């Protein structure tokens, strides 16, 4: 199906919000079904993170523009209030502590287990250490043993809308210090500001039905991310369409159609996470992916896994020639700076043409065009 020009931009950007939605409601494979596709779907479900709450950490690590500005202002205000030599937002993934919006010093990621932030987020209150060298446990942390040789450290945890701790707002100094009442209050107010912005930003970015990025957020982000990509970096754009979805809605009703889209989007997100791609809902039954890729081979493998995963859900579809819900997938890859696709408009147009070929060739298949 041909996308109008204004919809060719509706694929997601590098800002990742890891969402695995409605996993507990996905249909398991039928007992005794030995089809490879069914085993793929079952394995996707079993290997996926459990639960449907949003996780904001990867989104934040990829520098959402609005939240980056919020972080920068918070760090600068805290520096003025506390007088500390360095203030920052620290973000924690499974293995590392990352810095955002540092005020006073540019800092590189460090192992989470050796970070001060890992100690700070274990409680929901303000964490203050006047002299880290006097603490047997903290003096072994990376920033105490090495530059900037922190002695004073104060931090307050930051939570995403779903309740998960994503990091902390912190202040640090190479000299011992005390934190007065006004500065302590400033930590609390700045945390409230950051968490409120996170709630608003999440609500504005997410499609409520599927939990994927929504159209507005993708349109806002894709141009900037294309511009930020380095010359020569290979980028892949993907358009996915649920086959004969209108007929599915007409046959089973819109509530069943919504449930079907949720299940398809869950498989889409799982595969996207595994292959460091970004998933979004273009509109209706259409979805998109965007990501960096070294060459088309691994991309085609990932997309075939997606196609087989949806087929393996075994969602009955009596109006499909296959008898169950399937997807058609079109993809295009290019290196930024190559003449094949001048910009992201043309890259997504090429992916759309590949989708059209997949549908013309019988649907329930993957077509990858290379630039």
Task: Tell me what you see in this structure.
This protein has 371 residues and is α+β, with helices and mostly antiparallel strands. It has 2 domains: 5-53 and 207-370, Reverse transcriptase/Diguanylate cyclase domain (Alpha-Beta Plaits), CATH 3.30.70; 59-205, Beta-Lactamase. The chain has 11 helices and 11 strands. The strands form 2 sheets. A 6-stranded antiparallel sheet has the order 3-2-1-6-5-4. Strands 8-9-7-10-11 form a 5-stranded mixed sheet. Helix 1 (36-47) packs across helix 10, helix 8 crosses helix 9 (254-274) and helix 9 runs antiparallel to helix 10 (296-311). The protein is elongated and about 70 Å long. The model is unreliable at 1-43 and 45-54 (pLDDT under 50).
The name of the CATH superfamily of the largest domain reads Reverse transcriptase/Diguanylate cyclase domain
Q: Which spans have pLDDT < 50 for at least 5 consecutive residues? A: 1-43, 45-54
CATH topology of the largest domain: Alpha-Beta Plaits
| Order of helical and strand elements | HHHEEEHEHEEHHEHHEEHEHE
Biggest sheet descriptor = 6 strands, antiparallel
Average of per-residue pLDDT values: 79
Rough outline? elongated
Give the strand content. Answer: 15-25%
Structural class, please? Answer: alpha+beta
Radius of gyration over all CA atoms, rounded: 23 Å
The number of helices is: 11
What's the assembly state of these chains? single chain
Percent helix among the residues?
25-40%
Main sheet strand line-up = 3-2-1-6-5-4
How far is the N terminus from the C terminus? 21 Å
How does CATH name the architecture of the largest domain?
2-Layer Sandwich
The total beta strand count reads 11
- CATH class bucket of the largest domain: Alpha Beta
* Number of spatially distinct domains: 2
């Amino acid at each position: 199906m041909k996308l109008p020009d204004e919809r060719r931009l509706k694929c997601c950007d590098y800002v990742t919000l890891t969402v695995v939605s409605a996993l507990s409601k996905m249909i398991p494979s039928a007992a005794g079904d030995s089809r490879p596709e069914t085993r793929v779907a079952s394995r996707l479900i079993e290997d996926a993170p459990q639960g449907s709450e949003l996780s904001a950490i990867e989104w934040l690590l990829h520098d959402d523009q609005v939240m980056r500005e919020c972080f920068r202002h918070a760090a600068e205000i805290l520096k003025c209030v506390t007088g500390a030599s360095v203030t920052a937002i620290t973000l924690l993934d499974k293995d590392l502590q990352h810095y955002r919006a540092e005020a006073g010093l540019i800092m590189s990621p460090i192992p989470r287990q050796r970070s001060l932030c890992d100690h700070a987020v274990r409680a929901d209150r303000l964490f203050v250490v006047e002299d880290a060298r006097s603490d047997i446990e903290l003096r072994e942390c990376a920033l105490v043993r090495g530059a900037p040789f922190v002695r004073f450290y104060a931090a307050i945890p930051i939570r995403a809308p779903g309740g998960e701790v994503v990091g902390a707002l912190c202040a640090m100094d190479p000299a011992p210090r005390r934190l007065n009442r006004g500065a302590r209050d400033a930590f609390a107010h700045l945390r409230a500001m950051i968490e409120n912005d996170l709630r608003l930003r999440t609500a504005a970015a997410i499609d409520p039905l599927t939990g994927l990025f929504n159209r507005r957020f993708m349109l806002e982000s894709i141009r900037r991310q294309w511009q930020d990509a380095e010359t020569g970096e290979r980028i892949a754009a993907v358009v996915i369409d649920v086959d004969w979805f209108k007929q599915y809605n007409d046959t089973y009703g819109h509530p069943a159609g919504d449930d079907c889209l949720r299940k398809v989007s869950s498989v889409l997100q799982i595969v996207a996470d595994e292959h460091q791609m970004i998933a979004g809902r273009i509109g209706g039954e259409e979805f998109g992916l965007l990501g960096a890729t070294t060459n088309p081979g691994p991309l085609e493998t990932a997309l075939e896994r997606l196609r087989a995963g949806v087929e393996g859900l075994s969602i009955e579809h009596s109006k499909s020639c296959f008898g169950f819900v399937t997807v058609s997938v079109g993809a295009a890859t290019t290196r930024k700076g190559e003449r094949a696709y001048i910009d992201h408009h043309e890259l997504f147009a090429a992916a759309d043409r590949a989708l059209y070929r997949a549908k013309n060739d019988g649907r329930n298949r993957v077509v990858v065009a290379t630039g």
